[in-house]
Design goal:
- This protein folds into 2 domains: 2-171 and 358-377, Rossmann fold (3-Layer(aba) Sandwich); 182-353, Rossmann fold (3-Layer(aba) Sandwich).
- The chain is 45% helix and 14% strand.
- The protein has 14 helices and 13 strands.
- The strands form 2 sheets. It has a 7-stranded parallel β-sheet with strand order 3-2-1-4-5-6-7, sandwiched between helices. Strands 10-9-8-11-12-13 form a 6-stranded parallel β-sheet, sandwiched between helices.
- Strand 8 (198-202), helix 7 and strand 9 form a beta-alpha-beta unit.
Length: 378
Protein backbone atom coordinates (compact mmCIF):
# COMPACT_ATOMS: atom_id res chain seq x y z
CA UNK A 1 0.00 0.00 0.00
CA UNK A 2 1.20 3.52 -0.81
CA UNK A 3 0.24 6.14 1.79
CA UNK A 4 0.70 9.86 1.14
CA UNK A 5 0.94 12.04 4.24
CA UNK A 6 0.59 15.81 4.40
CA UNK A 7 3.65 16.75 6.52
CA UNK A 8 3.75 20.55 6.14
CA UNK A 9 3.77 20.98 9.94
CA UNK A 10 6.88 18.85 10.38
CA UNK A 11 9.28 21.75 10.83
CA UNK A 12 12.52 21.78 12.77
CA UNK A 13 12.09 23.41 16.21
CA UNK A 14 8.52 24.47 15.31
CA UNK A 15 6.47 21.32 15.70
CA UNK A 16 3.75 22.48 18.12
CA UNK A 17 0.59 20.38 18.44
CA UNK A 18 -0.07 19.31 14.85
CA UNK A 19 3.58 18.61 14.18
CA UNK A 20 4.00 16.49 17.30
CA UNK A 21 0.92 14.48 16.40
CA UNK A 22 2.27 13.65 12.94
CA UNK A 23 5.81 13.02 14.14
CA UNK A 24 4.88 10.66 16.96
CA UNK A 25 2.34 8.67 14.97
CA UNK A 26 4.08 8.36 11.61
CA UNK A 27 7.53 7.72 13.04
CA UNK A 28 5.94 4.60 14.52
CA UNK A 29 3.74 3.63 11.57
CA UNK A 30 6.55 3.84 9.02
CA UNK A 31 8.81 1.64 11.17
CA UNK A 32 6.05 -0.78 12.14
CA UNK A 33 4.94 -1.30 8.52
CA UNK A 34 8.11 -1.57 6.39
CA UNK A 35 6.15 -3.41 3.69
CA UNK A 36 4.25 -0.19 2.87
CA UNK A 37 5.54 2.99 1.24
CA UNK A 38 4.95 6.42 2.79
CA UNK A 39 5.18 9.62 0.73
CA UNK A 40 5.77 12.66 2.94
CA UNK A 41 4.64 15.89 1.27
CA UNK A 42 6.48 18.96 2.61
CA UNK A 43 5.92 22.53 1.46
CA UNK A 44 9.53 23.64 2.06
CA UNK A 45 13.00 22.12 2.56
CA UNK A 46 12.75 19.52 5.32
CA UNK A 47 14.94 18.24 8.12
CA UNK A 48 16.31 14.74 7.52
CA UNK A 49 15.35 13.76 11.05
CA UNK A 50 11.74 13.58 9.83
CA UNK A 51 12.58 10.79 7.39
CA UNK A 52 12.11 8.15 10.04
CA UNK A 53 12.78 5.01 7.98
CA UNK A 54 13.86 3.82 4.50
CA UNK A 55 10.28 3.28 3.31
CA UNK A 56 9.58 7.03 3.41
CA UNK A 57 9.85 9.06 0.19
CA UNK A 58 9.95 12.81 0.83
CA UNK A 59 8.75 15.34 -1.74
CA UNK A 60 8.63 19.12 -1.66
CA UNK A 61 5.41 20.66 -2.95
CA UNK A 62 5.84 24.40 -3.32
CA UNK A 63 4.85 27.13 -2.65
CA UNK A 64 4.66 27.31 1.14
CA UNK A 65 1.11 26.80 2.41
CA UNK A 66 0.46 29.04 5.38
CA UNK A 67 -2.37 31.43 4.44
CA UNK A 68 -5.96 30.76 3.37
CA UNK A 69 -5.44 31.48 -0.32
CA UNK A 70 -2.21 29.51 -0.50
CA UNK A 71 -3.92 26.62 1.32
CA UNK A 72 -6.47 26.16 -1.42
CA UNK A 73 -3.85 26.40 -4.18
CA UNK A 74 -1.61 23.92 -2.38
CA UNK A 75 -4.32 21.44 -1.39
CA UNK A 76 -6.44 21.55 -4.55
CA UNK A 77 -3.85 22.00 -7.30
CA UNK A 78 -0.24 21.49 -6.24
CA UNK A 79 -0.64 18.47 -3.98
CA UNK A 80 -2.79 16.38 -6.37
CA UNK A 81 -0.39 17.16 -9.22
CA UNK A 82 2.65 16.23 -7.15
CA UNK A 83 1.11 12.92 -6.07
CA UNK A 84 -0.17 11.92 -9.48
CA UNK A 85 2.99 9.99 -10.42
CA UNK A 86 2.88 8.08 -7.10
CA UNK A 87 -0.77 7.03 -7.43
CA UNK A 88 -1.24 6.67 -3.66
CA UNK A 89 -3.93 4.46 -2.17
CA UNK A 90 -4.79 7.18 0.34
CA UNK A 91 -3.82 10.70 1.41
CA UNK A 92 -3.71 11.38 5.15
CA UNK A 93 -4.62 15.01 5.90
CA UNK A 94 -3.80 15.59 9.61
CA UNK A 95 -4.63 19.29 10.03
CA UNK A 96 -8.37 19.64 9.47
CA UNK A 97 -8.12 20.56 5.76
CA UNK A 98 -8.23 18.33 2.71
CA UNK A 99 -8.18 18.58 -1.08
CA UNK A 100 -11.50 19.19 -2.80
CA UNK A 101 -9.95 18.40 -6.18
CA UNK A 102 -8.70 14.82 -6.05
CA UNK A 103 -10.29 11.42 -6.52
CA UNK A 104 -7.74 9.76 -4.25
CA UNK A 105 -9.33 8.62 -0.96
CA UNK A 106 -8.51 10.94 1.95
CA UNK A 107 -8.42 10.42 5.69
CA UNK A 108 -9.16 13.78 7.31
CA UNK A 109 -7.97 14.31 10.88
CA UNK A 110 -10.08 17.04 12.48
CA UNK A 111 -8.94 17.74 16.03
CA UNK A 112 -11.79 19.98 17.18
CA UNK A 113 -14.41 22.55 16.20
CA UNK A 114 -13.25 25.36 18.47
CA UNK A 115 -14.11 27.93 15.80
CA UNK A 116 -17.79 26.95 16.06
CA UNK A 117 -17.94 27.51 19.80
CA UNK A 118 -15.52 30.39 20.34
CA UNK A 119 -15.41 32.36 17.08
CA UNK A 120 -14.26 35.47 18.96
CA UNK A 121 -10.81 33.91 19.29
CA UNK A 122 -10.38 33.40 15.54
CA UNK A 123 -9.24 36.12 13.09
CA UNK A 124 -12.12 37.12 10.80
CA UNK A 125 -10.66 35.80 7.53
CA UNK A 126 -9.66 32.47 9.11
CA UNK A 127 -13.11 32.18 10.66
CA UNK A 128 -14.76 32.64 7.27
CA UNK A 129 -12.44 30.00 5.83
CA UNK A 130 -13.25 27.45 8.54
CA UNK A 131 -16.98 28.09 8.36
CA UNK A 132 -17.13 27.87 4.59
CA UNK A 133 -14.82 24.94 3.95
CA UNK A 134 -15.12 22.63 6.97
CA UNK A 135 -18.50 21.14 5.94
CA UNK A 136 -17.09 20.64 2.43
CA UNK A 137 -14.01 18.90 3.82
CA UNK A 138 -16.17 16.59 5.92
CA UNK A 139 -18.26 15.61 2.92
CA UNK A 140 -15.25 15.13 0.65
CA UNK A 141 -13.19 13.00 3.04
CA UNK A 142 -13.52 9.25 2.67
CA UNK A 143 -13.11 8.89 6.40
CA UNK A 144 -12.59 11.18 9.41
CA UNK A 145 -10.48 10.75 12.52
CA UNK A 146 -10.70 12.93 15.61
CA UNK A 147 -9.01 12.94 19.01
CA UNK A 148 -11.84 12.27 21.49
CA UNK A 149 -15.39 11.03 21.77
CA UNK A 150 -16.31 14.60 22.63
CA UNK A 151 -14.99 15.88 19.30
CA UNK A 152 -16.65 13.00 17.45
CA UNK A 153 -20.02 13.84 18.95
CA UNK A 154 -19.44 17.52 18.27
CA UNK A 155 -18.82 16.86 14.57
CA UNK A 156 -21.96 14.74 14.40
CA UNK A 157 -24.08 17.39 16.13
CA UNK A 158 -22.69 20.37 14.24
CA UNK A 159 -22.63 18.89 10.72
CA UNK A 160 -24.76 15.77 10.75
CA UNK A 161 -21.82 13.57 9.75
CA UNK A 162 -22.57 9.86 10.05
CA UNK A 163 -21.11 8.37 13.23
CA UNK A 164 -19.82 5.32 11.36
CA UNK A 165 -17.63 7.58 9.20
CA UNK A 166 -15.66 8.89 12.22
CA UNK A 167 -12.90 7.12 14.15
CA UNK A 168 -11.53 8.27 17.51
CA UNK A 169 -7.74 8.43 17.60
CA UNK A 170 -6.66 9.69 21.00
CA UNK A 171 -3.57 11.85 21.33
CA UNK A 172 -0.92 11.28 24.02
CA UNK A 173 2.02 12.66 25.96
CA UNK A 174 5.55 11.81 24.95
CA UNK A 175 7.76 9.60 27.16
CA UNK A 176 9.99 12.56 28.08
CA UNK A 177 7.22 13.78 30.39
CA UNK A 178 8.03 11.81 33.54
CA UNK A 179 8.24 12.54 37.29
CA UNK A 180 11.39 14.47 38.19
CA UNK A 181 13.77 13.73 41.03
CA UNK A 182 13.92 16.01 44.05
CA UNK A 183 17.26 17.37 42.84
CA UNK A 184 15.90 18.27 39.40
CA UNK A 185 12.82 19.88 40.92
CA UNK A 186 14.95 22.05 43.17
CA UNK A 187 17.18 23.03 40.27
CA UNK A 188 14.17 24.02 38.12
CA UNK A 189 12.66 26.07 40.95
CA UNK A 190 15.97 27.84 41.54
CA UNK A 191 16.37 28.72 37.86
CA UNK A 192 12.81 29.72 37.03
CA UNK A 193 10.97 30.52 40.28
CA UNK A 194 13.52 31.99 42.71
CA UNK A 195 13.52 28.70 44.57
CA UNK A 196 9.77 28.87 45.27
CA UNK A 197 6.94 26.45 44.53
CA UNK A 198 4.89 27.40 41.48
CA UNK A 199 1.69 26.83 39.59
CA UNK A 200 2.26 26.14 35.90
CA UNK A 201 -0.08 27.58 33.27
CA UNK A 202 0.19 26.02 29.80
CA UNK A 203 -0.95 27.73 26.63
CA UNK A 204 0.98 30.99 26.51
CA UNK A 205 -1.25 33.91 25.63
CA UNK A 206 -3.64 32.22 23.24
CA UNK A 207 -7.03 33.71 24.27
CA UNK A 208 -8.75 30.32 24.22
CA UNK A 209 -6.39 29.08 26.95
CA UNK A 210 -7.87 31.62 29.41
CA UNK A 211 -4.79 33.26 30.92
CA UNK A 212 -6.70 36.40 31.93
CA UNK A 213 -8.98 34.47 34.29
CA UNK A 214 -5.98 32.50 35.58
CA UNK A 215 -4.30 35.80 36.54
CA UNK A 216 -7.48 36.89 38.32
CA UNK A 217 -7.60 33.54 40.13
CA UNK A 218 -3.93 33.83 41.08
CA UNK A 219 -4.65 37.25 42.62
CA UNK A 220 -7.48 35.76 44.68
CA UNK A 221 -5.24 32.90 45.76
CA UNK A 222 -2.50 35.33 46.79
CA UNK A 223 -4.96 37.47 48.73
CA UNK A 224 -6.43 34.55 50.65
CA UNK A 225 -3.31 32.49 51.27
CA UNK A 226 -0.54 35.12 51.59
CA UNK A 227 1.66 32.58 49.78
CA UNK A 228 5.00 33.11 48.06
CA UNK A 229 3.93 30.78 45.24
CA UNK A 230 4.89 31.78 41.71
CA UNK A 231 2.96 31.42 38.45
CA UNK A 232 4.90 30.23 35.42
CA UNK A 233 3.31 30.87 32.02
CA UNK A 234 4.60 28.47 29.36
CA UNK A 235 3.59 26.75 26.16
CA UNK A 236 3.84 29.50 23.55
CA UNK A 237 4.97 33.00 22.72
CA UNK A 238 4.34 35.43 25.56
CA UNK A 239 3.54 38.12 23.00
CA UNK A 240 0.78 36.23 21.21
CA UNK A 241 -1.74 38.77 22.55
CA UNK A 242 -0.19 42.24 22.81
CA UNK A 243 -3.09 43.66 24.80
CA UNK A 244 -2.81 40.96 27.43
CA UNK A 245 0.95 41.37 27.47
CA UNK A 246 0.55 45.06 28.25
CA UNK A 247 -1.93 44.28 31.06
CA UNK A 248 0.55 41.92 32.67
CA UNK A 249 3.10 44.74 32.90
CA UNK A 250 0.81 46.50 35.41
CA UNK A 251 -0.47 43.33 37.14
CA UNK A 252 -0.35 43.60 40.94
CA UNK A 253 1.59 40.36 41.34
CA UNK A 254 3.78 40.88 38.27
CA UNK A 255 6.92 39.95 40.23
CA UNK A 256 5.45 36.52 40.93
CA UNK A 257 4.53 35.82 37.29
CA UNK A 258 7.24 34.33 35.06
CA UNK A 259 6.58 34.59 31.32
CA UNK A 260 8.38 31.91 29.32
CA UNK A 261 8.76 31.77 25.56
CA UNK A 262 9.07 28.57 23.53
CA UNK A 263 11.15 26.00 25.41
CA UNK A 264 13.04 22.89 24.30
CA UNK A 265 10.97 19.79 24.92
CA UNK A 266 13.30 18.38 27.58
CA UNK A 267 13.25 21.65 29.53
CA UNK A 268 9.46 21.93 29.32
CA UNK A 269 9.15 18.37 30.66
CA UNK A 270 11.32 19.23 33.67
CA UNK A 271 9.33 22.42 34.33
CA UNK A 272 6.08 20.46 34.12
CA UNK A 273 7.32 17.73 36.45
CA UNK A 274 8.53 20.29 39.01
CA UNK A 275 5.26 22.22 39.27
CA UNK A 276 3.12 22.15 42.40
CA UNK A 277 0.06 21.92 40.13
CA UNK A 278 -0.87 22.73 36.55
CA UNK A 279 -3.58 25.26 35.67
CA UNK A 280 -5.35 24.44 32.42
CA UNK A 281 -8.83 26.06 32.52
CA UNK A 282 -9.07 26.27 28.74
CA UNK A 283 -12.38 27.30 27.25
CA UNK A 284 -12.26 24.54 24.65
CA UNK A 285 -10.05 21.53 23.84
CA UNK A 286 -10.48 18.62 21.50
CA UNK A 287 -8.10 16.58 23.65
CA UNK A 288 -5.79 18.61 25.92
CA UNK A 289 -2.32 17.10 25.66
CA UNK A 290 -0.83 19.24 28.50
CA UNK A 291 -3.27 17.61 30.93
CA UNK A 292 -1.97 14.14 30.07
CA UNK A 293 1.62 15.41 30.20
CA UNK A 294 1.07 16.72 33.73
CA UNK A 295 -0.68 13.55 34.93
CA UNK A 296 2.14 11.47 33.47
CA UNK A 297 4.63 13.65 35.39
CA UNK A 298 2.77 13.16 38.66
CA UNK A 299 1.48 16.74 38.82
CA UNK A 300 -2.11 17.60 39.86
CA UNK A 301 -4.22 19.46 37.31
CA UNK A 302 -6.91 22.10 37.70
CA UNK A 303 -8.96 22.31 34.53
CA UNK A 304 -12.58 22.59 33.40
CA UNK A 305 -15.34 20.17 32.56
CA UNK A 306 -15.79 22.01 29.28
CA UNK A 307 -15.11 20.09 26.06
CA UNK A 308 -13.05 16.90 26.41
CA UNK A 309 -11.38 17.37 29.79
CA UNK A 310 -13.72 15.20 31.85
CA UNK A 311 -13.39 12.43 29.25
CA UNK A 312 -9.60 12.57 29.36
CA UNK A 313 -9.11 13.08 33.10
CA UNK A 314 -12.20 11.51 34.74
CA UNK A 315 -11.86 11.84 38.55
CA UNK A 316 -8.10 12.40 38.42
CA UNK A 317 -8.51 16.16 37.91
CA UNK A 318 -9.95 19.14 39.78
CA UNK A 319 -12.57 21.06 37.80
CA UNK A 320 -13.52 24.74 37.78
CA UNK A 321 -15.70 27.09 35.76
CA UNK A 322 -13.46 28.72 33.11
CA UNK A 323 -15.59 31.87 33.22
CA UNK A 324 -15.36 32.22 37.00
CA UNK A 325 -11.89 33.01 38.43
CA UNK A 326 -13.18 32.43 41.96
CA UNK A 327 -13.84 28.74 41.26
CA UNK A 328 -10.33 28.38 39.82
CA UNK A 329 -8.89 30.05 42.92
CA UNK A 330 -10.92 27.74 45.18
CA UNK A 331 -9.38 24.69 43.53
CA UNK A 332 -5.92 26.24 43.77
CA UNK A 333 -6.47 26.67 47.51
CA UNK A 334 -7.82 23.14 47.83
CA UNK A 335 -4.75 21.52 46.30
CA UNK A 336 -2.47 23.91 48.23
CA UNK A 337 -4.01 23.29 51.66
CA UNK A 338 -4.86 19.58 51.43
CA UNK A 339 -1.76 17.43 50.95
CA UNK A 340 -3.75 14.19 51.04
CA UNK A 341 -5.96 15.48 48.19
CA UNK A 342 -2.86 16.43 46.22
CA UNK A 343 -1.33 12.98 46.71
CA UNK A 344 -4.59 11.31 45.70
CA UNK A 345 -4.72 13.39 42.49
CA UNK A 346 -1.11 12.46 41.70
CA UNK A 347 -1.85 8.76 42.14
CA UNK A 348 -5.04 8.85 40.08
CA UNK A 349 -3.41 11.02 37.42
CA UNK A 350 -0.57 8.59 36.79
CA UNK A 351 -3.07 5.76 36.47
CA UNK A 352 -5.28 7.73 34.07
CA UNK A 353 -2.34 8.90 31.94
CA UNK A 354 -1.39 5.27 31.33
CA UNK A 355 -4.50 4.92 29.15
CA UNK A 356 -2.91 7.19 26.54
CA UNK A 357 0.24 6.41 24.57
CA UNK A 358 1.57 7.21 21.11
CA UNK A 359 1.78 3.48 20.42
CA UNK A 360 -1.95 3.21 20.97
CA UNK A 361 -2.57 6.38 18.93
CA UNK A 362 -0.55 4.96 16.04
CA UNK A 363 -2.51 1.70 16.16
CA UNK A 364 -5.82 3.58 16.13
CA UNK A 365 -4.81 5.77 13.19
CA UNK A 366 -3.56 2.72 11.28
CA UNK A 367 -6.98 1.11 11.74
CA UNK A 368 -8.57 4.32 10.43
CA UNK A 369 -6.28 4.27 7.39
CA UNK A 370 -7.24 0.67 6.67
CA UNK A 371 -10.91 1.51 7.14
CA UNK A 372 -10.64 4.40 4.67
CA UNK A 373 -8.83 2.34 2.02
CA UNK A 374 -11.23 -0.56 2.42
CA UNK A 375 -14.21 1.78 2.28
CA UNK A 376 -12.89 3.39 -0.93
CA UNK A 377 -12.34 0.01 -2.58
CA UNK A 378 -15.84 -1.15 -1.67
Amino acid sequence: MRIAVNTIFLQKDKLEGYGYFVQEIFSRLAKDHPEHEFIFAFDRPFDERFIFSPNITPIIVSPKARQAISFRYWYDIKLPLALRSFNPDIIVQPYGFCSLNTNTPQLLVLHDLAFRHYPQFIPAWHLFYYRFFTPRFLRKATRIATVSEFSKNDIIQQYGTAAEKIDVVYSAAKPVFQPASYEIQQEVKTIHADGKEYFLFMGGMQPRKNLLNVLKAFSLFKKRQQSNMKLLVAGGSVRHDNRLFEKIKTYKHREDVVLMDYLPEEELAKITASAYAMLFPSFFEGFGVPVVEAMQCGVPVITTEKSSMAEIGTDALLYADPNNPDTIAQQMMAVYKDESLRNELIKKGKSQAAHFSWERSAELLWESILNAVGQARD
